[in-house]
Amino acid sequence: MRTFEVLELFAERRRPMALHEIYTELGYPQSSTTNLLKSMVLLGYLNYNRIKRTYLPTMRLNLLGNWVAGYMQQEGGFRELVEEMQRRTDETVGIATQNDLFVQYLFLTAPGHQFKNVPPDGTMRLLVDSSAGRAMMARMNDRAIDKLCRYTNHYEMSDSRVNYAEVMKDISWIRHVGYCYFPNWPTPDVSSISIALDADLHGIPLSIGVGGLAERISREKADILATMRELIAAFNARRAAVRDAAADQPDAPGDAEDN
């Protein structure tokens, strides 16, 4: 956990940092921080400048995850969907996926105006406490939703106990209308609208959401929903066309069974 917290600190500061800065900022003991940083240097993930006595991540870190964006892109134009939806709605748009009891934002695109409150890529929130999560939960059966609520309570993930009956009332409405609208959440001045996608990432559920300042989302809700539905329908049609085209391709030599 400390290794990742060190790396996230560098991602936030974006500059070389000295030992005392790192352990002071993170609240770690000096001795264990020294040992941790030395190990990361020996593994090639941090560079140590002996003259300035500072640390800086190396390009080896980039190699760990630079394939992910291309991998997602190969799965079917998710990035283009997000960018077009952001352009049309002029609000923050993101794709989220289920990660155990949480949703995690894979990538987000923000508008250029100041009326926004954008979480960083990779941010995680509880499934039961987010519009993206509720939209995905509406695709689950009731037993699976019950387990999610019980596990969330068991591990005391939420600030207050999750009430299954209240969650199911909201889930029933989402199933009826096909989207989840979370007004004034996770903060009073923010709202979001999410729709579960038919497409998944190798079996991992996905949803797409539009969020922004509550007043703006409330005022433009009907238009935002119309845009989301239009673009999702076009996205699904493109994916279906690609699948059909692939299915029509003749077998490569040697693929067919010999008679």
Give an overview of the whole structure.
The protein is α+β, with helices and mostly antiparallel strands and 259 residues long. It folds into two domains: 2-58, Arc Repressor Mutant, subunit A; 75-246, Beta-Lactamase (2-Layer Sandwich), CATH 3.30.450. Helix content is 49%, strand content 18%. It is built from ten helices and nine strands. The strands form two sheets. It has a six-stranded antiparallel beta sheet with strand order 6-5-4-9-8-7, sandwiched between helices. A three-stranded antiparallel beta sheet has the order 1-3-2. A hairpin with a 2-residue loop joins strand 4 and strand 5. Helix 5 (78-89) packs antiparallel against helix 10 (221-248). The chain starts with a helix and ends in an 11-residue tail after the last helix. 24% of the residues are buried.
